[in-house]
Amino acid sequence: MPDRLIRVGHSPDPDDAFMFYGLASGKVKIDGIRVEHVMEDIQSLNERAMRAELEVTAISAHVFVHVADRYWIMRTGASMGEGYGPIIVAKKNYRLEDLRGKVVATPGRMTTASLLFKIYTDGIANVDMPFDQIIDAVLAEKVDAGLLIHEGQITYKDMGLHKVVDYGEVWQKDSNNLPLPLGLDVVRKDLGEDLARRLSRALQESIHYGYQHQDESIPYALEFGRGIDASLGARFVKMYVNEVTIDMGERGKQALQLLFDRAFEKKLIAKMPMVELY
Questions:
Q1: Which residues are catalytic, by number?
Q2: Domains of the chain: residue spans and CATH
Q3: How many whole angstroms separate alpha carbon 118 and alpha carbon 125?
Q4: For residues 185 and 258, what is the distance between their CA atoms, to the nearest angstrom?
């Protein structure tokens, strides 16, 4: 009997590549399962999740509100910042209030970064664009400031840009030191609970393998870095592949619930999803 095909969607980013190295390299296997990796930008994966196309996929935490009827949250694989997160940067040394009447580039309506912008920022206009075009737009003064995700969070100073606000710091104060949920891995409900939990354990094993074999996993992850050297790449990976990535646990669950609470209070989401971990 042939192995069952499970398609796993994740971003071509260093942190996701690091997490999935064990599975992608074949060092971590799942009996009876053949894993096919689907590597696309997070906006594409969000859209696929809205159509429930992939059996397992990374999504923006924000998107779970819209797919909770078809997917369960995996307790492993989440990207959460501990006191750091998406940042607004500008060419000028602005304070946040200086941006009133100006325009901030944001990385897509369904990203969690853009949700945080809407929750914690009032009266400032934004325009969506692909995340990897935001720094260039700020430098070219096509926009007044930009909301950065991914490696831009640690490389912006090298380009002469100034930090206006770090939503990880804002969240840390508001949440009483809970981690900031940015991305989740989810598993489709029609697979059934047993298989869902097997897949979650396999991803957990893959992350453990990456940490135990960093001489293999870090160079692999850096193949997906955009203009960052080995030391910065390793730093970025470990920022977003941390203890709550291995197992979200109660802290991660509380943080996710609070994010949805804040969004619901601001009428940015129409309903509260059930937060259960598999």
A1: 150
A2: 4-80+180-265 (3.40.190.10), 87-175 (3.40.190.10)
A3: 10
A4: 18
Sequential pLDDT tens for the chain (278 residues): 789 999 999 988 888 999 999 999 999 999 999 999 999 988 899 999 999 999 999 999 999 999 999 999 999 999 999 998 999 999 999 999 999 999 999 998 899 999 999 999 999 999 999 888 999 999 999 999 999 987 777 788 888 999 999 999 999 999 999 999 999 999 999 999 999 999 999 999 999 999 999 999 998 998 887 666 677 777 778 888 889 999 999 999 999 999 999 999 999 999 999 999 99
**Rounded distance, CA 41 to CA 63, Å?**
14
CA 168 centroid distance within chain: 13
